[in-house]
Known about the structure:
By secondary structure, this protein is α+β, with helices and mostly antiparallel strands. The protein is built from 12 helices and 15 strands. Strand 5, helix 7 (214-218) and strand 6 form a beta-alpha-beta unit.
Amino acid sequence: MIKDSTQSVLLQKLFELLERHRTAFGPERVYWRIVGMVLGEIFNFGRHTVTQGLMSLGIIDGDWSGWYRLFSKGRYEEQKVSRIFFRETLEHSREPEPYVTGVDGVQIPRSSLRMPGTSWLKAPRTPVFKVGIHRAQRFLHGCWLTPMEAGYSRAIPIRFLPAFPPKAKPAEVKPQREWEAGLSFLRWVRQEMDETGREAQLLLNLADGSFDVLDFWRGLPERSLAVVRTARNRRLYYMPERHTGRGRPASYGGLAPHPCDWLHKGISWQKRDIPVRGKSILMKFQVLGPFVREGLPEVPMFLFVVKGMHRKVGKKKPHYKHRKPSFYLVSAVQVDGQWQLPLPIDIILAWLWQRWELEVAHREMKSGFGVGEKQCWNPRSAISSVQWSVWVYALLLLSAYRTWGLLNAPPIPTRWWQGAKRWSFNTLWRQYRSAFWNTSQFQAFWTRTPGNWLKKEAFLLGLSNSIAASTRI
């Protein structure tokens, strides 16, 4: 019997999600192996390999080949699973508001020179002044961003698509660039939204500067918007004036200043207090345009110039933190013959901050959850095992979001620190393990030491004597 009702609800939500994915796994035995692997990910305290997961379940004598075939023989089909999971997220997105997604490239470090999909990529941990390379697989992370609460959001992965460069070791998928994989993801999301009756709901996507490519803007699906960080020297043009005479109308107006030039124009800055992660931050910005880009006259867009910030942070040791100016291109929409912003300014500014949640998810998946640690070298499993780990991570997050929201997690059981306002992945993992250990099926086999420090020495002495006695039998 589970002692904490919130922990009971947490497990209930997790098993409900697993049950709704049952149709994606075919035979009954495959589904129950999937459930066992999910539990193995939660109980595993070591590296998140298939072997360590099975050992955490106590499966140490049988044949393990059937478990590895989940990834090598197509038992786990990423697209089927992603479709079911995506439709589960629609329950938390209201139609009057846009469905917000984010795309970003992420590298899974590898040591093998022969693993399919691996190539030499720029190492993210090397300094800017001395860039290095490392061996890795590149994936496209397409996620859903939960509705904001007090300036908080969370990136929950929907799909993890391979985006291997052309020079990568040949794999079962075609090589493609990051922005090409990003377009595939957005088109898939738009199609799924239309099939579920969400034709009128807008799709808003956040992306960094690597997606500021002409073909990416040109290939955006209908009823989809993009907010993309752009270069400080991006070449932009004003919209052409209305053509009244003979001949072909002009595609471009006059050349506009570079985005960084607007910082020194002497214009007045707009100001807004934007809620960001439990705080209110004063942002100074300008909204300019509409503009068009060279080679893309058919896609008008607005330019957001966000002024740099120099603000005081920290409580115990206050210090000043400087944030450089940033520049963003935002899709424009036409209303009554006029190009306008697709959303209110405050909403766009708030979502600009939330793109960082994708980086937070990358750290949690790779450093905390062990994505990419499974020793699966088969051409198919080298990809599907990574996608599997990301799906389990997303399951755990969505179950917790349905249980607590973003801010209502149980407090941290420590005397000196009660935890952050938004629960972390470590807090979530601790709650899952505590919930399972409070059930009769997964009761931990250990005895707590007495609370009286004077009696602990005798307790430990008696325990060591019993162990020594048992070895002599």
